[in-house]
Amino acid sequence: MACIQILLDRRRRSSCLVLLAVFQAVAGQIHYSVPEELQEGSFVGDISQDLGLDMKQLLPGGVQIITEGRTQYFALNFQNGHLYINERLDREEICGRLLTCILKLEILIQEQLKVYTVEIEIEDINDNAPAFQVETLQLNIPESTPVGSRFLLPDAQDPDLGVNALQSYQISPNRHFFLDVQMTASGAKYAELVLEKSMDREGRRFDMPDLILTASDGGNPVKSGTAHIKVSVEDANDNAPVFSESVYKVTTAENIPVNSLLVAVHATDLDEGINSEITYAFRQVSEKASNSFHLDPRTGEVRVRQEIDFEECALYEMEVQARDGRGLSGRANILLAITDVNDNAPEIAVTSLTNAVSEDCPEGTIIALLKVIDRDSEDNGLVTCSIFGNPPFHLEKTFDNYYSLVTGRALDREDVSNYNVTVIATDKGNPPLSTTTTIQLKILDKNDNPPTFKKKSYITSITENTSAGASVLTLKATDPDWEMNGKITYSITEGEMSYSFFSSCLSINSETGVIYVLRSFDYEEIQEIKFLVKAQDGGSPPLSSNVSVTLFILDQNDNAPQILYPSPPTDGSTGIELAPRSSEPGYLVTKVVAVDADSGQNAWLSYQLIKATEPGLFTLGLHTGEIRTARFFLEKDALKQSLVVLVKDNGQPPMSVSVTVTVVLADSIPDMLTDLGTISAPISLESDLTFYLVTAVAFVSCLFFTFLLVLLVLRLRKWRHSQLCDTGSVNLNGVPVSQFVGIDGVRAFLQTYCHEFSLSSGSRKSQIFFPIESCTNTLTGHQASQISGPLFTANDSNINKEGQSCKQVCFAFTKL
């Protein structure tokens, strides 16, 4: 217990003040108590002793006092560690009517990065005497006023608290009145003048002395204030104004505009004339409320006079008096509650800061110490701190409203060499308010990065037949290190092929990373090349990285289509396809099959019929190559039809090939042979129609009789034919007449026709023969490719001129 005697105001008081004991709380707080009105420089507490600080730490830069508000009421003596008063302490000015007046300050120890909270309680002294707002009160009392009538007297105000506040009222001795002191629900005392004896206005008009109202507090010594009451007796006014409500409760936000209407009080008086004329006035109101609000004396409207602030005062209690023209009055209270709005943004103070840190510093390194304050209340004053973006730092709340900015993950100077860390403090108001502050931080370098490519793998392409020396791709690797550690050289290391292959076809510029081709490529030989490129920096030891490169060879239209069927002729003749005369429109005669060694659209083939013996007789599928009949055959149609088919790819420019297909119109092989044997010189197209008809009838008749003759001869010699077939080791019985055979990757449907026939020695010179060496029902791919000659020729030694032998001949026609 320390006792401090301070001489205060020689004319007013002199007392001995005792400083309460100092204690240190669990949260690291120190509590002092001092009376108000101490002189500047008065001792408050020994900070160095209470905090256990070394005097060496008490340097101007080692210890810092942080206070709220603009006035610095306390200061620290760095010589002895004492906390002393820096500004005059007026408890009523600082805390108003608060029961407990505490000032907080924080002491920051820079070396330890620790903060201690110091609470200083300002104790009240009796430095204010009760005072009346009105020094002289004119009290007009009607002569008819009954005994016991009460007259409300002006209140005295004393800003002190406790026993030092207003305690009692006294009235000067008189014969007509006595004083009755009452207490409101809030504990405030007010005085009423009670008429004890009726008055005769005419008889007592000049005998009524002025009354002295005295208000006294409970201090030591007692202080008091007085007010003069002048009593005048008037004619009877027996009705006092009465308010519609005894208490007007109003709630408004602190951002209400100036001149806005808060409430309109209303009182009524049953008297008439001047006795009922009511005026309104504030009766008991604080100076701040009087400056903030205006009461219209005629209408009773209470309006905002100036901006109000919740942070300064949250509740106003005002007493309104309604007074008639003869002095009778009534009273009512106005309770005005101010609600908080989020009108104060948080404040951020950087109390400690480190400007540079190495990129290999451990996680959790403290960069800065921040303090956040918001003057609003409840949710409007709740503040959350965050960091803008996603830097490698985060905030940790140390205690109360202090935050530490620490490293959250490993730093990389090559990634970011300087940081502008933006700290955002946002309250929870609606709408929320926020404040930002930027902390600049430099990252110190370390060599720890190999070269890196922008991509994990590269894919590029080049068209075939590209000339040697053309650039294919430019690779770019980056190294964020400095000088030689960031200088990069490129080389081709390996791939799926041998090194000799790469050295002969590819090259890379070691400085620029440009890849060149050393020769042209053929898509049909190679379609892609995969290899690795290494990027190596100039550090010691060097660091490197590899990247995979895939080079695709793109196709060009450098191959013409190739006809697979019908096989290209070797002796200038064409193959023959059979189309029965009874065929309906759409009958599949044959199919042209072609392939292209190119790929993609360069291999898309289309088929065109560019020349025909009789246009309109056959159709050709644009993409299928199928030759079909377009209509029914007529007698006048030529027996032998020549079709020239053009096969063209879709390349740019397109390439094409043509093939000639010969179609014979006949229902069967014997008919075909007979019809072809009777073909003579071309008939003039200008002949008469009758001649054609007669010729056709004769031809059909001859063909019919010839067929009967051949059939008869075949039946008579059936046994001989069987022997010939057995000795020839050809057995067609039980063999399917259709098979699937692959021709150079194309699935072809082969349909075999086998017929027996014999020709006599009297056959015409235009006999038809077959170069097929054996009689079989299928053709292999090799055999099919060997059939290059015409299906029929004019001479063949296999035909017996005597007509004594019969040979079985197989005709193979392919239908796709």
How would you describe this structure to a colleague?
- Helices cover 10% and strands 41% of the residues.
- The chain is mainly β.
- The protein folds into seven domains: 2-123, Cadherins (Immunoglobulin-like); 131-234, Cadherins (Immunoglobulin-like, Sandwich); 242-339, Immunoglobulin-like, CATH 2.60.40.60; 347-444, Immunoglobulin-like, CATH 2.60.40.60; 452-554, Cadherins (Immunoglobulin-like); 562-677, Cadherins (Immunoglobulin-like, Sandwich), CATH 2.60.40; 718-815, no CATH class.
- The chain has a five-stranded mixed beta sheet, with no helix packed on it. Strands 12-19-18-15 form a four-stranded mixed beta sheet, with no helix packed on it. A four-stranded mixed beta sheet has the order 21-28-27-24, with no helix packed on it.
- Strand 51 and strand 52 (626-629) form a beta hairpin.
- The radius of gyration is 61 Å and the shape is elongated.
- It starts with a strand and ends with a strand.
- The model is unreliable at 1-27, 679-687 and 725-816 (pLDDT under 50).
* CATH structural class of the largest domain: Mainly Beta
**Helical percentage:** under 10%
CATH fold category name of the largest domain: Immunoglobulin-like
Question: Order of strands side by side in the largest beta sheet?
Answer: 3-4-10-9-6
Task: Report how far the terminal alpha carbons are from each other.
Answer: 120 Å
Largest pleated sheet: 5 strands, mixed
Strand content: 35-45%
CATH superfamily of the largest domain: Cadherins
Number of folding domains? 7
DSSP strand tally: 57
Round the mean pLDDT to the nearest integer and report it. Answer: 76
In CATH terms, what is the architecture of the largest domain?
Sandwich
Structural class: mainly beta
The outline comes out as elongated
Low-pLDDT residue intervals, each spanning 5 or more residues: 1-27, 679-687, 725-816
Radius of gyration: 61 Å
Number of helices: 9
Q: So what's the oligomer here?
A: single chain
